[in-house]
Amino acid sequence: MIGALDVEVEAALKAEGWRWRGWERVSSLVSPALDRVTYRVDLDGAAPAATVKARRMPGEEAARVQAEIRRELPGAFVAVLARHGRVLLEEWVEGEVLGAAPDAARLREAAALLAELHVRTTLDGKSLLGRESTAAQRDTTLHALPKLQRAGLLQPGQASDLERALGRTDPGSCLYGLIHTDFCGANMVVDRSGRLRVVDNERLGRDALGYDLGRSWYRWELAPESWRCFLDAYASAHPVREPPEPFRFWQIVAAVRAVEIRLHYAPDQVGAPLACLHGLLIKEVAA
Q1: What are the domain boundaries of the chain?
Q2: Which superfamily does 97-286 belong to?
Q3: Which of 47, 56, 89, 103 could crosslink 43 through cysteines, CB 3.0-4.6 Å?
């Protein structure tokens, strides 16, 4: 324990009548501008669980939406135990982090979980799955390129290369549905019973399914053969049979958006998505 427990998190724990004996801040991306924080909280013996995850969201509406979405998800996605204002109190899963080098069986299991999320047709009575234009995805990405160039992260020629690649690979339309936004090995745990659990689910929402796969590619540092295994298993588990969308488009969209977000909120942590983006540029030049 370093410093003080967030006052809103403390209030949420007290509202549940839970007392705690220790806590640890576990947020991976730390920035005052994000206005969010996550803790592991060890509770005393009178509480319903030994440990919980306490997550303060940016706002109460965001917390409410996440709690409602997760109420309808399969048990592999960890549950929200309670919500108080903008604080979510969640199940804590003990186990081994899946990481960047899972075996083929775990990759197939993970791919099936993401496909199961993506093919949900409704949530709380609202339609989710449908085909829409990629114009918003393309325009948002194009709008970000000058920002990256002004920040010195892209040279003018590189921005032009990415713009041409977007135009060449844009499928024109894509499937929209429920996406995770941070589906990767760092956010999955094999629990003590051997079950694969997805433990960080605070950015669920409706967006392009291809973008979610692009995000997984950027966030999950899988070897190329492992990534092919994951995509093949995902395609096999996805019952919506439509022509495949050019994946390079979604890689660029995801990497550019990740660089832009980190440039705004945590500029000292822009390295990982920028390395992915530069890797794509090398492939474009070689193509």
Answers
A1: 7-92, 97-286
A2: Aminoglycoside phosphotransferase (APH), C-terminal lobe (3.90.1200.10)
A3: 47
